[in-house]
Fold:
Amino acid sequence: MITIHAIKEIRDDHPAFPGHFPDNPILPGAVLAEMVVECATEAGLTVVSIEAIKFGRPINRGGNLAIRFQHVGASVQFVCTMATEAVAKGKLRVAA
Structure:
């Protein structure tokens, strides 16, 4: 089993925040999914698809998103955390 760790900064000025709930800005799930795929690709994985993703709590401005990838068989499981709290988890299909 191979484990990969990545960190993604959630900047206060991220372009997804304005207009996405102006009184309580949160990071859209599609943007979080894109960050997961981007980090997996930067780690050398060829992502074919997102097989599953479950979102926990909303992600507000600021902080670091930690992503842990574990290569299990033909897929890669991931867990995203902010501080010590899981905010999303799922599974990626990757090319062999």
Notes: The domain at 2-94 is CATH 3.10.129.10 (Thiol Ester Dehydrase; Chain A).
